[in-house]
Write a structure and sequence with these properties.
The chain contains six helices and five strands, in the order βααβααβααββ. It is α/β, with parallel strands linked by helices. It has a single domain, classed as Rossmann fold (3-Layer(aba) Sandwich), CATH 3.40.50.1010. Strands 3-2-1-4-5 form a five-stranded parallel β-sheet. α1 packs across α2, α1 runs parallel beside α3 and α1 crosses α4. The longest helix has 16 residues. The chain is globular, with a radius of gyration of 14 Å. The termini are close together.
Length: about 140
């Protein structure tokens, strides 16, 4: 199985509609998904905006979010701590400091990042995958 780091943009996209992102995250048999535990806080901060933009009840959004997050192994910072300094340099050069933990986890696992965030395209040494590449 291919291990893939998932960033918050993917999970948030899965909240808005039952499309390719949600399908890939919930049904992939060829990939395993992981994210830093940090993703929980990042997702929580976006819930009010998702509720407002989607027009769906908060309870519905939270139920879908629970399903999506259950498809992702959440990793504590200790697993990738030794990679944080290198990740900080990479994300600083790409003006994407908020993505440091995702980059550190990707470096520690030697895994690509599944993201919809264009900032990752500016990061040297970080491979990304598209939704269409998830198997």
């Amino acid at each position: 199985m291919k291990r893939i780091v998932v960033d918050a943009s993917v999970v948030l996209a899965g909240l808005f509609k039952d499309g390719a992102v949600r399908h890939a995250l919930l049904t992939s048999e060829l990939s395993t998904f992981t994210a830093p535990r940090y993703i929980d806080g990042e997702l929580d901060r976006h819930i009010p905006d998702v509720v407002q933009r989607s027009g769906l009840p908060r309870e519905t959004i939270l139920a879908v979010l629970e399903d999506l997050v259950s498809a992702v192994d959440l990793v504590p910072p200790g697993v990738y701590a030794m990679w944080l300094e290198r990740a900080t340099g990479i994300t600083r050069r790409a003006s994407a400091a908020k993505d440091t933990e995702y980059v550190a986890l990707a470096l520690s696992l030697g895994a690509p990042v599944w993201t919809l965030d264009k900032a990752f395209r500016r990061m040297r040494g970080i491979k990304t995958v598209l939704t269409s590449e998830i198997g």
